From TrEMBL:
The keyword Membrane does not apply. Keywords: Iron, Iron-sulfur, Metal-binding, S-adenosyl-L-methionine. The keyword Iron applies. Pfam families: Radical_SAM (PF04055). Signal peptide: none annotated. The lineage of its organism: unclassified sequences, metagenomes, organismal metagenomes. Residues 11-142 form the Radical SAM core domain. It comes from viral metagenome. GO terms for molecular function: catalytic activity; iron-sulfur cluster binding; metal ion binding. This is Putative radical SAM superfamily protein.
Amino acid sequence: MEANIVKHYLINPTWRCHSRCSYCWVEQTVRLRSELYAVTERPFDDWVLAIQRDRPDVVDIAGGEPLLLDWIPDLIFACPETYFGLSTNGLAWEQLNRICVYKPHNLTSINISYHPETADRLPNYDKLWQRAVERVQKAQGKPHCNIVMADGNVERSVAAIQWMEANGVKYELSPYERVNTLGQIMDQGLCCKGGVNHLTVAPDGTAWSCLTTLRSPFWESLSVGNWLDDTIDLDRKPQPCYLNCVDYYVLPELHKAGDMWCIEAKPCEY
C-alpha cells in the first residue's frame, strides 16, 4: 500500500482533548490563537462528503482527541475505499472499544500516545492507558504507542516503556518540534507536494499545505482554503517556501517514518 500512496491527509475534527500537555503543539499554537481554537466543529456528513469527493489514499485522524466525537468510528465505516490511521490518548473508552469490536478493515493503524503529564492529573491514568493498549492489542494485535521527547518526558515514562517492552507493544520516541523555531526564515527555498499529496485540516475545514504552515506565525496568510467546502486554492501555497520545514529539516533525521506525510520537500530547482 505505501508504495502507491498519492494523497495522505491529516484531519483534526476537534481541538478538544482530555489532556492539556504543555508540550503539545495544539496547546502551544492553536490554544493561543483564540479565533482558530474557537472554530465551529463541522458535522459527520461534511467529512464523509469531502473524503468521498477527494478520495485521499490515507487519512490520519488526530486533533485534539478525535474520539471525543462519537461519530469517528462511523466516518471510518462510511469510507471503505480510504485507509485510515487514528491517533488517540486512549481515554475515550466507549468509542475505542466500538472500533475494536467492529474491526474496520480500512483502519490500518491505531496510535495510543502516552503522556506523563496526564498522569499528574488523573491518578488512574496509567491503568486506563494500559487498558486501551490491551484492548487494541486483543482486537487487532498491532497497537502502536509514542512518547514525545519533550524535556523530562522520557525519564518520566520509564515504567510505561518497561510495560510496553514486557508486553510486546511497539512504540516510538517522537521528536519534539519546538514551535518557537517554526517562524525562522531559512536561506534555502523549498518546493514540495504539500497541498497536492497532503493537506492538514482544522475542525472547520480550513486547510494548510502542511503542518509547518499551520503551526508557523504566518498561519493565517498561509491557509489554502477550506477543504470541506471544496475551495482549495494552491496559488495561496508558498513556493518556494522559506519556513523552517519540519518535513525537510526534522522528520527525515529524527523520525523513523521519515517523510510520513508524502510532502517530498526538497530545494527548488530553477
